[in-house]
Amino acid sequence: MKKIIFILFVGVVLGGGSILLLKNKGKQQTPSQSSALSEQTQVRGKVVTVSATNFSYDISEIRVKKGEKLTIRFVNSEGTHNIVFEDLNAQSDVIGAGKNQDVSVPTDTAGTFAYFCSVGNHRKMGMEGKLIVE
Q1: Which DSSP category does 77 fall into?
Q2: Residues 71, 105 contacting (CB under 8 angstroms)
Q3: Of 40, 46, 55, 117, which residue is 20 to 30 A from 22 by alpha carbon distance?
């Protein structure tokens, strides 16, 4: 009698575990999916990556709609740089090569606004661009 009860118990435990596994199949996220979801949840709206090298940005013009949440993902590939939106009171820290920083830029005013690197004479050397808020 004890053997029958034991066999039934094992069958219920294994069967129940199999049902749970089948029920959750396809619902699990891989680590990269979890990271991407977490990143999307943290930053909503438009995210624009601007990469800096010695003495230029890879994007010279950014366009957004008025009121759209804008995050600049500033990535520095070489040297020491920052990104400054002076008329919008937004800027990154000065960061070294291999570093990056997100900067929230207000877009509640339509117009064309300059962005530039304020380190040394980098702006005069061509490290600038424009943000167009439509």
Answers
A1: -
A2: yes
A3: 40
* φ and ψ at residue 60, rounded to 5 degrees: -100, -10
- Global confidence as pTM: 0.68
Other residues' Cβ atoms within 10 Å of the Cβ of residue 76? 23
Tally of domains in the chain? 1
Give me the pLDDT at residue 44, please: 74
For residue 19, tell me if it sits in a domain: no
Residue 73 resides in a domain: yes
Contact 82, 118 (CB under 8 A): yes
Q: How far apart are CA 11 and CA 102, in angstroms?
A: 53
Report angle CA 97, 103, 105 to the nearest 5 degrees.
140
Question: In this structure, what token pair is assigned to residue 87?
Answer: 């008329």
Residues spanned by the domain of 70: 45-133
The answer to whether position 122 is within a domain reads: yes
Per-residue pLDDT reduced to its tens digit, 51-94:
999 999 999 999 999 999 999 999 999 999 999 999 999 999 99
